[in-house]
UniProtKB/TrEMBL annotation:
InterPro entries: Ester_Hydrolysis_Enzymes, SGNH_hydro, SGNH_hydro_sf. This is Lysophospholipase L1-like esterase. Residues 69-248 form the SGNH hydrolase-type esterase domain. It comes from the Bacteria. Gene3D superfamilies: SGNH hydrolase. SUPFAM superfamilies: SGNH hydrolase (SSF52266). Residues 317-362 are annotated as: Disordered. One of its GO terms (molecular function) is phosphatidylcholine lysophospholipase activity. It comes from Barrientosiimonas humi.
Length: 362
């Protein structure tokens, strides 16, 4: 079964209350439990707490922008020493600079939180901010490491997004990162965690887009840099990002936050560009492509195709556009578990191909 089908199945189970993450055998479960204990001993707990980054950023004129951050330790900023080094602080400062308006950041993320904890965080949010402008959610790692049924995790995320959207809040979700890049986690746990985290990220995208939010793939965002400079991109526990790692994650989320707020930059408010491998297609296919391509945004459209809602895939990369002199420069789907190009048995199509077939604008 391809990852696109698994993502749809998990998201559907989340919507209708079923299970979506088949149980592992007793022998495999025992092995994973033992490997997880080893990983925890290696990683350790060198941090007591994360800095409090809530507060006002920028000194511009006009009404303040209310930005909230929900989720787990990555959203909280565990692994850094200064409040200014968290994802929330970096994004808040940048939004204030781009908009020329002050930004009030409220961070209610909790170290160790799972997706099921988002409901309580939203409850706390309503006590602090009645109508937030935009919310950033980063969650999923603890669902994988605690072997939470993926459909259950996705259901709680979808409910949180739905509650926020009902208040008119724009929602940007940084999907579950690829745990296969965490070197202290031994094999075979790392390979299994990689598959589970990627499947969860794809299913998160399907569910979030269906609820009116948008997602940004964090994928193996730190992977190449970690291999080359682990002491730079990861903190001393070798698990949570360092200030440089959080800055990279913030740079991936920022364009989507600005776009959600209607702020115009060189990479917001634009149509998909085929030269970047962007396009419009089934949300499950876009979700799979995003998992394999960190920094990719998926946001829904009002269009519904044969396989459900269509979504826009935008690759917000800083690298130059590919050379198209020998072709159209379209990116490869880049995931060997994704369903291949159209076939009579109903397999999925790459998003860019569906865009061309359906005549969607680009």
């Amino acid at each position: 079964m391809g990852r696109a089908r698994r993502a749809r199945r998990i998201a559907a189970a989340a919507a209708y209350g079923g299970g979506g993450a088949g149980a592992v055998g007793l022998a495999t479960y025992g092995l994973l439990a033992a490997e997880a204990k080893i990983a925890r001993r290696v990683v350790g707990t060198p941090f007591e707490t994360a800095p409090d980054d809530s507060g006002r950023y920028g000194h511009g004129f006009g009404d303040q922008i209310d930005l909230v951050v929900l989720g787990d330790s990555s959203a909280r900023g565990l692994g850094v020493d200064e409040p200014s080094q968290t994802v929330g602080a970096i994004v808040a400062g940048a939004v204030a600079a781009f908009s020329g308006r002050p930004v009030e950041l409220t961070n209610l993320a909790v170290v160790g939180a799972q997706s099921a904890d988002l409901d309580g965080q939203v409850d706390q949010l309503w006590e602090r901010v009645e109508y937030p402008d935009v919310a950033i959610i980063m969650v999923g790692v603890n669902d994988v490491t605690h072997r939470i049924d993926r459909s259950v995790a996705v259901r709680h995320l979808a409910m949180a997004v739905n509650r926020l959207r009902e208040r008119g809040t724009e929602v940007v979700v940084g999907t579950c990162p690829d745990l296969g890049v965490i070197r202290p986690v031994p094999q075979p746990l790392r390979l299994i965690a990689q598959r589970w985290s990627r499947d969860l990220a794809a299913a998160q995208t399907v569910a979030v887009v269906e609820q009116g939010g948008r997602t940004v793939s964090l994928g193996d965002l730190l992977g190449p840099e970690f291999l080359e400079s682990p002491t730079v991109m990861f903190s001393k526990d070798q698990f949570h990002p360092s200030p440089a790692g959080y800055a990279r994650a913030a740079s991936a989320l920022l364009p989507s936050v600005l776009d959600a707020l209607g702020q115009t930059t060189v990479d917001t408010g634009r149509a998909p560009d085929q030269r970047r491998g962007e396009g419009v297609g089934p949300v499950a296919v876009a979700a799979v492509r995003a998992v394999a391509d960190p920094g990719t945004e998926v946001v829904g459209t009002d269009e519904v195709g044969l396989r459900g809602r269509l979504a826009v895939l935008l690759r917000r990369h800083r690298e130059p556009l590919p050379d198209t002199s020998d072709g159209d420069g379209r990116a490869d789907p880049a995931d060997d578990s994704a369903d291949p190009t159209p076939a009579p048995d109903g397999q999925e199509e790459p998003a860019a191909d569906v865009q061309n077939r359906t005549g969607q604008p680009h």
